[in-house]
Design brief:
The complex is a heterodimer of chains A (493) and B (538). Chain A has 493 residues and is an alpha+beta fold. Helix content of chain A is 35%, strand content 24%. In chain B, the strands form six sheets. In chain B, strands 4, 5, 6, 7, 8, 11, 12, 13, 14, 15 and 16 form an eleven-stranded mixed beta sheet that branches. In chain B, strands 20-23-24-28-27-26-25 form a seven-stranded mixed beta sheet. A three-stranded antiparallel beta sheet of chain B has the order 1-3-2. The longest helix of chain B has 17 residues, at 110-126. Classes of the chains: A alpha+beta (493), B alpha+beta (538).
Chain lengths: 493, 538
């Protein structure tokens, strides 16, 4: 598998270019691209790549000046003549020049007089300075002692860098000289459509050979164990997946999905469910009330049921007030939506369910949020009984993946009998999951619902916490994006 | 829910069964047994509809029946006593109803006192709506001299309240005493406060706030006077629960003559109420198949008086039961006695066809498209606040539903759009790699009406108009939403880099590059783009 670049780079190396920069200049490519290409060619056995660290030396500003004008000691030497008094050297730079003059042995000082010792031949350092005027040089090409001196005087600076040397192998030479043009090589993928169509490939002892331009090439084997780049897929929220799973169970069991408004009147949220107007659950501290009143339907029969009873019930007594029922709330459960649906559909059979947000005035923490999802299902039919409710619950929880279900008496204000289903969870034991019961006559009678209504509900977020192994409910709503990314689509439900 | 502490020793003695037998069946009678069982006791929660179970004695009475040790109605003897309590007109407008009783011959252990105090508190909560409807006072009768008087007193009246050494006026008690501060609101606006005094004008009780110190109950107390005051007939239920529970401890109940202008009352009245129920009705509710004899047997185990009479059962409901208002309440007890675990849990026979709500099908389509575009779904809260939702978004707040008593300043309104919630999620996730692309599909509430929106947002160094415009085009095409695009004046968007979506002359959405001031408010430091579309109304 050679690309157009592969071929071009290989050919330029065959022509004698052996470092990335010169190849890059030649082919007008980026150096990085040349290096990457060469590395790939090496893997295929076409090249040998030698990597070494080189030190590049160049002039500093000061060094450039002296390279052009000569070192200060050279200038001082030229001005000595036969001799000069030390006291004549006023400039501080002369002091430094004098030091080097003596160090290099070009002059001696006797009784305050500087005297030249000879002709002062040009030193290695001076030659080096001059040669660097042309541009940076590798340290390997320079005199070691001279370099140390110049460095200590701050006249040259050096930087280390990696250097690549390319040598073409025999196989590379064979390939590059086979007359393949760069343009042709571009047409040569791992396995091209043409190769598949013409069958110009063969597999020998588990190795794939591709025929190309009359030669046969071994397809480069990859290290398949290496991790690839990360791709982040878009996907559904894990919690939504659980909700949809529960929805699909309800649909399979023949239930019709219903929805209702988030803002409800107290009438539908409480009164229609025979919750007395002074019930603690209606207090401000548990319910989000709005500063507004709703229109409510004809309440005569509901009022009568609360105050005086009926349908075999004694009622709550006291006085039922429509203005209390008109107060609007954020629904505290979806049951208000359910009873309204039943009131609109009093003919049996009715099987309905909903999964929606409900609101409770609770401080937010790891196990409480002011809003959460609730599932609710109802069955209204001729001749359905409490035992049927238990059967439906058992089926529902089984489908949810809870194999063991048991039933404990419970209490809910608008159902009688009431039951608390419990499921067995490995490591946790029996866990209460939801509540159920038969709607009281006091609830159904005022709306002309004549047959029993079996109802159950459960907190969906609790199930999600169990299924997703979450310790903090807030994570469902204020999600950590990495958690969303990393949670697999396939959750063990 | 009320928690009753069950001491195993006490319970074994009261019931006459072993600890294992009791604990093995208790939950099936209707109780939540605490996870942590201690060496000597366990805390058990009982339901709000069964205040008669708020004491160890009440639990024992019910368990004896449930286990089949003693069944049928418990008949408590009420001796006619000499004590009279006079109700005066001055209290009628404040706290009109009172019931009282005397219970003699008690020998209090510390556990018995704890049980009685616990019962009192739980009744205040469960039946009494925090003492408003029912308040109970229990007194050592040997300290006072009958007859007693219940009347409305001047708030300046002084006496020594329970647990105090000095006199306080009733007015001061409401201001300073912990109970006064806790329950004083019940008497708000009243010119006179309820008071019970004896023949020598010594104070027994200041209902519903506090007793007098004089009559406090100790382990030496043998004879009790009990007053229950309140607003309606629940007063007498509470009294019956207290006196029968004390009778279970061996006390002898004695009546008090309550003299009232509307007619005298002999209190307590422990006569059971009579019901006639049909076995066929019970069978059709519960789904078992019991004869009237079998039904009666079940009910006797729940401590009802029950005799089969043809296909019906004559039921006597004990005077301490506060939850029986319909025959179904009786049938539920029969089902508990029969055992929920013995019921034939079966599916109903009617065949029905399921149907998803159209909005949920639509949401499924939206999720498919957004996931295909590489966006992750989020499900933010619908509750938010004006600062984040409007101020930070540089938008005019309109149509938002406000809750009256928010629990935190973070949750004061219902959202009217979704985009700000997505930016909040970005803000929480700045430590994670970019690009981040998220969406949400869900309810918003405008003018109290639920509408359904989709919002999506993308944040990374290269997020720009063309990215979100491309995504928008896909969304509109795939979801078959017809909308005209016009330049937007939305403050949340960068001028010249945002568009509005118009359908049938109404704005249904917007998209574009988010304004740097918006990003800054959310603490975001990378360019972000977003879109939002309303796609349905409930």
């Amino acid at each position: 598998m050679l690309s157009e670049n592969d071929v071009k780079v290989l050919k330029s190396i065959l022509q004698g270019h052996c470092d990335p920069q010169s190849i890059a200049d030649l082919l007008a490519m980026k150096v990085e691209a040349v290096r990457a290409t060469a590395d790939a060619l090496e893997e295929q056995g076409f090249l040998k790549v030698t990597k070494s660290v080189v030190e590049s030396v160049s002039l500093t500003e000061e060094g450039r000046k002296y390279a052009q004008e000569g070192l200060p000691e050279r200038a001082l030497f030229s001005s000595l003549g036969a001799g000069k008094a030390v006291s004549e050297l006023k400039d501080p730079s002369h002091k430094i020049a004098l030091g080097w003059l003596r160090k290099k042995g070009w002059a001696t000082i006797q009784a305050g007089m500087i005297k030249p010792t000879g002709s002062a031949p040009k030193g290695k350092d001076e030659e080096m300075l001059e040669s660097l005027l042309a541009g940076p040089k590798g340290s390997a090409d320079l005199n070691k002692k001279g370099l140390v001196d110049l460095k200590s005087r701050g006249l040259v600076t050096s930087s280390k860098s990696k250097e690549w040397r390319y040598e073409i192998t025999e196989e590379g030479t064979k390939f590059a000289s086979s007359g393949i043009s760069a343009a042709a090589a571009k047409e040569m993928p791992t396995l091209s459509s043409d190769m598949i169509k013409t069958g110009s490939w063969k597999e020998v002892d588990g190795i794939l050979y591709l025929d190309y331009m009359g030669s046969s090439y071994r397809a480069r084997p990859y290290d398949v164990t290496l991790a690839a780049d990360r791709i982040i897929p878009g996907k559904m929220h894990p919690y939504q997946r659980i909700i949809d799973f529960m929805r699909s169970i309800m649909l399979e069991m023949g239930f019709v999905e219903i929805k209702g408004q988030i803002v409800q009147s107290s009438f539908w949220n409480f009164d229609a469910l025979f919750q007395p107007q002074d019930h603690p659950a209606r207090e401000m501290q548990d319910t989000f009330y709005l500063d507004s009143l709703a229109d409510i339907p004809d309440y005569t029969r509901v009022k009568e049921m609360h105050e005086c009873g009926g349908a075999g019930s004694s009622g709550w007594g006291g006085c039922w007030r429509p203005e209390v029922a008109r107060q609007e709330v954020l629904r505290t459960h979806t049951t208000g939506v359910t009873i309204k649906y039943l009131a609109d559909h009093p003919e049996p059979p009715v099987k309905a369910f909903g999964i929606d947000r409900v609101y409770r005035r609770e401080a937010i923490d790891a196990t409480h949020t002011p809003e959460f999802e609730q599932l609710e299902g109802i069955v209204m039919d001729r001749d359905v009984t409490f035992s049927h409710l238990l059967g439906i619950l058992k089926e529902f929880y089984n489908k949810m993946g809870f194999e063991e279900v048991r039933f404990r008496p419970g209490y809910f204000p608008y159902t009688e009998p009431s039951v608390e289903p419990e499921v067995f969870i490995e490591g946790l034991g029996w866990v209460e999951l939801g509540g159920a019961g038969v709607f009281r006559k006091e609830v159904t009678a005022p709306f002309g619902i004549e047959h029993p209504v079996l109802a159950w509900g459960l907190g969906v977020s609790r199930v999600a916490m169990l299924k997703l192994g979450l310790k903090d409910l807030r994570l469902l709503y204020q999600s950590d994006i990495e958690w969303l990314r990393e949670t697999p689509v396939s959750i063990k439900l | 829910m009320p928690v009753v502490r069950i001491y195993y020793d006490d319970m074994e003695r009261l019931i006459g069964a072993s600890r294992d037998t009791i604990m093995g069946r208790l939950a099936m009678m209707g109780a939540d047994i605490g996870k942590r069982a201690e060496e000597e006791y366990v805390d058990v929660e009982f339901f709000p509809d069964r205040p008669d179970l708020y004491s160890a004695e009440g639990v024992a009475r019910a368990m004896q029946g449930f286990l089949g040790l003693k069944t049928g109605l418990v008949e408590y003897e009420v001796r006619q006593g000499p004590i009279v309590l006079q109700v005066e007109e001055s209290v009628k407008s404040v706290r009109p109803i009172i019931g009282c009783a005397v219970v003699r011959g008690l020998s209090f252990t510390s556990e018995a006192i704890e049980s009685l105090m616990g019962l009192q508190e739980d009744l205040h909560w469960g039946l009494g709506r925090n003492r408003r409807k029912v308040a109970i006072g229990v007194h050592d009768i040997s300290r006072v001299t009958p007859p007693f008087r219940y009347f409305g007193e001047d708030p300046a009246r002084k006496f020594v309240p329970l647990d105090y050494a000095e006199e306080m006026s009733m007015h001061e008690i409401l201001e300073k005493h912990p109970k006064g501060k806790g329950y004083g609101h019940i008497l708000k606006g009243c010119e006179r406060y309820p008071l019970i005094v004896d023949a020598n004008d010594q104070v027994l009780s200041f209902p519903p706030i506090i007793n007098g110190e004089l009559t406090s109950v100790t382990e030496e107390t043998e004879d009790l006077f009990i007053d229950v005051t309140g607003m309606d007939g629940m007063v007498h239920k509470a009294l019956n629960i207290v006196v029968t529970s004390l009778a279970e401890r061996g006390g002898q109940i004695e009546s008090v003559l309550v003299k009232r202008s509307e007619g005298d009352l002999v209190s307590p009245n422990l006569r059971p109420s009579s019901w006639t129920v049909s076995a066929a009705e019970a069978n059709s509710l519960i789904g078992f198949d019991l004869s009237s004899q079998e039904l009666a047997e079940c009910l006797r185990r729940m401590r009802f008086g029950a005799v089969a009479n043809g296909s019906e059962v004559e039921v006597l409901v004990p005077a301490y039961r506060a939850d029986i208002m319909h025959s179904w309440d009786i049938f539920e007890d029969a089902a508990k006695a029969y055992g929920f675990d013995r019921l034939d849990a079966r599916l109903p026979g009617t065949v029905t066809v399921g149907r998803a709500h159209p909005s949920e099908l639509r949401k499924g389509e939206i999720r498919e498209v957004m996931a295909g575009l590489g966006y992750l779904e989020t499900m933010p809260f619908t509750l938010t606040n004006e600062k984040v939702h409007f101020q930070w978004m540089r938008r005019q707040g309109a149509g938002a539903v406000h809750v009256m008593h928010p629990i935190s300043e973070l949750h004061t309104i219902l959202r009217t759009s979704l985009l700000s919630s997505l930016l909040e999620i970005f803000a929480m996730n700045q430590h994670h790699p970019l690009p981040q692309r998220i969406f949400a599909v869900g309810d918003v509430v405008i003018e109290k009406k639920t509408r359904m929106h989709l919002a999506a947002a993308s944040i990374h160094s290269g997020a720009d108009f063309s990215e979100i415009r491309s995504a928008l085009d896909v969304v509109l095409r795939e979801l078959a939403i017809a909308a005209e695009i016009v330049p937007s004046l939305d403050g949340a968007l960068l001028p010249g880099r945002g568009g509005d979506l118009i359908a049938s002359g109404r704005k249904i959405g917007c998209f574009g590059e988010l304004h740097p001031l918006v990003l800054k408010s959310f603490g975001l430091e990378q360019p972000a783009v977003g879109l939002e579309i309303e796609w349905g109304v409930l």
